Amino acid sequence: MPRPVTVSVPHNLGQAEARRRIEDGFGQLQQQMTGGLGSMVSWQRHWEGDCLHFESGMLGQKLTGRLEILDDAVRMEIDLPEILAALADRISGKLRDAGRKLLEKK
């Protein structure tokens, strides 16, 4: 059974700029979620309004999630397959760090 992980990353960029940065930097978040196995993982993603839905698969395991772009935060929800559930805390910490880097005011 999938284990949901939720991470919220606050920002002060406004919704449009936060979305642009997520669109441009989603590859960095993908790397954090796959732990460097990116070339072995297939990804699909699509936007519904200000919510990016994504799905990936590797070795028979499926990972799904959503990134909701809000005015003052990006809320990430990821449904980890059982095999990755034991790493949920580590994954959420890496996602939080990667999200902060993407959303830092420059």
UniProtKB/TrEMBL annotation:
Listed Pfam families: PHA_gran_rgn
Highest taxon of the lineage: Bacteria
Official protein name in the record: Putative polyhydroxyalkanoic acid system protein
